[in-house]
Write a structure and sequence with these properties.
By secondary structure, the chain is α/β, with parallel strands linked by helices. The protein has four helices and five strands; from the N terminus they run ααβαββαββ.
Length: 211
Amino acid sequence: MPNLNISSETADTLFNAFNIALIVGAIIVAVATIGTIWTGKIRDRYSDLRISNNETEIARAGADAAHANQAAAVANKAAADASLHAAQVEKQNTELRVKFSNRRITAEQHAALVAILSKHPNTFNIEVMGDPESGMYAADILKTFTDAGWVVDKKEFPLGVIWTGLNVFQSDDPAAVEIAKALRDAGIPFSIGNEHRDKATIMVGGKPPVF
């Protein structure tokens, strides 16, 4: 228990002092409360601003990434188109090289023809146009047939006529059928000549026009 043995004047003084302290404390509490609320709102505003800025940066980064992806997609498509165009040009160049190059019997075609023709060796005639390209192609054909065991009966250079391409003339000679079948199976382009020969005959005409 506090000491109650004080004078009336002292009690009045202390009472007034404590009241003043209560008032000052209440004012401090009120100011502190107001200050806390005020500064809290300021802090919340800055926090919201930081959050908003972060969200803006995230959105900007997302947009930049989307633009980068779109640019990459455009670049990839351009690269794919360029590759396709290059492939098409190369295909056209290859076709042109084939069209303009001299006709020859390739190693693969030679092997295929020999494998087929050597099963039933026979004799045949060959007619050749007089130009160098046809002569070289005819030499390839002769070597291939000779390697397969076939024998040339007649070799002629017809005059006064113009033949183009490789032709097998119509004939009742079974060897003509064997020749046509071998050429077809070896993938060598040829035509059936519209003239008839008693003997199986190959006509090596001039190179067909390119265009």
